[in-house]
Amino acid sequence: MNESEKRNFILFVVGRMVSLIGSGIQMVAMPLFILDLTGSGTKMGLFATINMVPALILAPFAGVIGDRFNRKKIMVLMDYLRGFIILSLAYLTYINKLNLFVLFSFQVVISLLDSFFGAATSAMIPDLVPEKDLMKANSITESISSASMIIGPVLGGVIYGFWGMQWIFILNGISFILSAISEMFIRYEKTSKLKSHVNAKIILNDLKESILFIFNNDILRNLILLAISLNFLFNPLFVVLLPYTFREIIGFSAQQYGLLETSWTVGILVGNIFLAIFFSKRNPQKLFKNGFYGMIVLNFLIAIMVFPDILAYFGNIWTIFIIVSIILIMMGITNAFVNTPISVYFQQIIPNENRSKIFSALGVIFQAATPVGMLILGILIDHVAVHWLFLAIGILLFIDIFLFSGKISQISFVLPEEE
């Protein structure tokens, strides 16, 4: 990267880091606040749904906007809007006028703005750095995201406990505004040749083009099928099976389980640091395949760990905690070796004019199987011992990778140039 490209990328990364720390602070405090406000776990679950569904519905349309308008201006505008909306929540909290209906209504708006922001930022990195530096740039970006999501939740629990939700909203709102200020200094011109104009016909045509591009590309289509199947297995494992196993079956404390979840994020951070420093010039295809194999082996290790006889052998709950934490850190590292190279591949093969809308469509498709997997695994937990569920998921992952291994070998990355 030349000096101008480095400057732009640093401003982009700093803006993301500041806003993600603010989001992490609010992310951990919001469920606690809703529980304190209502005492209802159902309402907390409803809030999570409200946070996710509008963004998924709007994502393809936000992608169309991201391809036809200046991505930097979209980023800056979305950050300012989210900042002022969240500061409004702080004011409503201060005057004691914040109720559940207002909170949910504001969250729908914030979720919609998140869609536009995500569509613009996911497509913008290849506009800021040369293609040979994409692996390093994505690794740095993901490292910052992981570090922010470690720092933010830790701060969120402390700040909410001492000063309450008002200061959570204040800090998060300010973080978005600071992020917008940082992004304003990025030197960026609209690179897409598409006209800055949209109507219903254009949106439908662009969505049709996105779907055709995805499913007419044999390798991309198979990668999507692989990603859907992995999300079907992995996301429910982390959201449903892990907390149930280690909180209800093994008996970890809330603090122990919180640290256990953090270990996964620490692994992703470490993996992306390794990618940025040591592996940015390596063949991404080899990293990609080794990451998959590593995830399978480590999943089998967790399955073995939770068998009753093995748990009885280790006995001490802190010994179990340390071993499982190490495994999850290693799984996070292998996850980085899968996700970052595949993000680079998508950035390399998807044309600039279509990047935002295709990335948005991919995001919706990738997440589609997750709720189904959660529902099925939630039902199975009541009828099948958890160690058999871990083992079954490990076997299904192995079959999954075996079936798609030939397709993975067909992926043709643009290899980084030697210095």
Automatic annotation (TrEMBL):
Domain of life of the organism encoding this protein: Bacteria
Presence of keyword Transmembrane: yes
An MF annotation (GO) of this entry: transmembrane transporter activity
InterPro entries per the UniProt record, alphabetical: MFS, MFS_dom, MFS_trans_sf, Tet-R_TetA/multi-R_MdtG-like
Annotated membrane topology: Multi-pass membrane protein
Limits of the Major facilitator superfamily (MFS) profile domain: 8-409
Signal peptide per UniProt: none
Main location: membrane
Membrane-spanning segments: 9-34, 46-65, 169-186, 223-242, 262-280, 292-311, 317-338, 358-381, 387-405
GO annotation, cellular component aspect: plasma membrane
Matches recorded under PROSITE patterns: MFS (PS50850)
Subcellular location: Cell membrane
Protein name as annotated: Arabinose efflux permease family protein
Species of the source: Marinitoga piezophila (strain DSM 14283 / JCM 11233 / KA3)
